[in-house]
Write a structure and sequence with these properties.
- The two termini are 16 Å apart.
- It is built from five helices and no strands.
- It has helices at residues 2-29, 41-51, 53-65, 69-93, 106-128.
- It is mostly helical.
- The protein has one domain (13-128).
- The radius of gyration is 18 Å and the shape is globular.
Length: 129
């Protein structure tokens, strides 16, 4: 029984950290569209920086969350909520908007929610020990 508990604890510990890294790489991938703009060197650097500000913020949160899981849990859930509200209010402002725009936040907000829940679960397991 202790072996199974140890495996579960390792799974709960490593899963949100690995998913966070993959999620940050996924978000950073969206910044690659800056190369289609054919900007000069400094314009490209500035564009990459601007596109990756959320990635940098979440990277800092991940570093803090490595030790303090409740910070990651709360922040990733809030980040998912913020993104969802931001997209839905943008869609609501447009008068004629297609219905499928309501589902636009799903691929980005869902992993953020999942990562946040896993961080909180890890925090809870760690607190119970």
């Amino acid at each position: 029984m202790a072996k199974l508990q140890n495996k579960v604890n390792r799974f709960v510990y490593w899963t949100p950290r690995i998913l966070s890294i993959l999620f940050l790489l996924f978000l950073a991938m969206f910044s690659l569209d800056i190369f289609d703009m054919q900007l000069d060197f400094w314009g490209t650097v500035l564009g990459l920086f601007m596109h990756n500000i959320p990635v940098f913020v979440l990277l800092v949160v991940l570093i803090i969350s490595w030790k303090y899981e409740c910070v990651g849990g709360v922040f990733f859930i809030l980040a998912g909520l913020f993104y969802t509200v931001m997209v839905l209010t943008t869609v609501a402002i447009r008068t004629p908007h297609p219905w499928y725009m309501l589902f636009w936040p799903v691929p980005i907000a869902t992993p953020a929610f999942l990562i946040g829940i896993l961080f909180l679960l890890n925090w809870h397991v760690k607190k119970r020990k």
